[in-house]
Amino acid sequence: MSTIAQISTPLGSGGIAIVRISGEDALKIGRSLFYSKKLQNSDITPRLLYLGDFDLGDAKERCMMVYFKAPYSFTGEDVVEFQIHGGEYLATKVLDRIVEKGASLAQNGEFSKRAFLNGKMSLDEAEATIDMINATSDAEIKASSKLAEGSLFKQVKKIQDDLKNGVANLEVALDYPEHDDEAMSEQAVVEILKNSLETLKNLEKTYKNGEKIKFGIDVAIVGKPNVGKSSLLNALLKEDRAIVTDVKGTTRDTLKETVNYKGLKINFIDTAGIRESDDIVEKIGVEKSKKTIEQSDIILFVIEGSENLDN
After folding, report:
1. DSSP per residue, 248-298
2. Are residues 188 and 236 in the same domain?
3. Rounded Cα gap, residues 272 and 255, in angstroms
4. Residue pLDDT, tens place only, 262-276
5. Range(s) of the domain holding residue 146
6. Is 294 found in the same domain as 275?
7. Using one digit for the tens of pLDDT, what is the confidence trace for 207-244?
8. Domain identity same for 193 and 236
9. Dihedral (C-alpha) 69, 74, 75, 76: value to the nearest 10 degrees?
10. Which of 36, 43, 237, 293 could cross-link to 52 by cystine, CB 3.0-4.6 Å?
């Protein structure tokens, strides 16, 4: 595979930016652009940070360089990282110089892809890495951490191993009936299937929980026009997000805002007041409200305190 390079930190101004190179020529390219007194007459030591100058062509950048020797790196290949000052133009300039020396620009997710192909991580660990990066709540971080520890992988691996063992024993019983006493009993194979099915069913049940952790719990604020739905949303958000007036039917569309509560995301959805109306726009809003009711996890039904319930 070709040697790839990319900026590994978000573009923008900041204290530090990191530019990463991975592949067979990573060290060769890195050494050709970096000068340090510590490296002048000696070999580079893996995992040791070196202070020196990066050659920008018409200027120099004072930075740090570290080398991770294969297979002891994120991708499983030789990896070189430059820790430079965090300027968008500067980081791009450093990347351009690395590409000039023979590296190819890495595509989105290519470092993780190489880590997977080189056996450095499983697919669930790769997914956990992305989830951890995109996490916006404590619940997401906890779930991503558990996935990264290999909890799913271990369960799936056990199912695979048990089924392979069952299949192998069935084949022995069919191909060598004279050794039937040495093969696994029919009941033992049935037990393997039952246990595997039970584990899969339990994993399936966790999917919805994971979905709520990742995307949040949808709470629809529903009721007649002008009963205080938008006022309630503003109170929950502690800001004037929704328009509030004395005129009935002010809210014509759904308005979704997220609150982080005790590490979990809750999506409050303000809806148009439900009533019969000849107004075409309001009718569309009411239909949207009804769809939101069907799709939400929780319905927060708001009524006027001074009025009785009706149909």
Report:
1. TT---S-EEEEEEETTEEEEEEE-PPP---S-HHHHHHHHHHHHHHHH-SE
2. no
3. 9
4. 888 899 999 888 777
5. 122-211
6. yes
7. 777 888 888 899 999 988 888 888 888 888 888 776 66
8. no
9. 40
10. 36
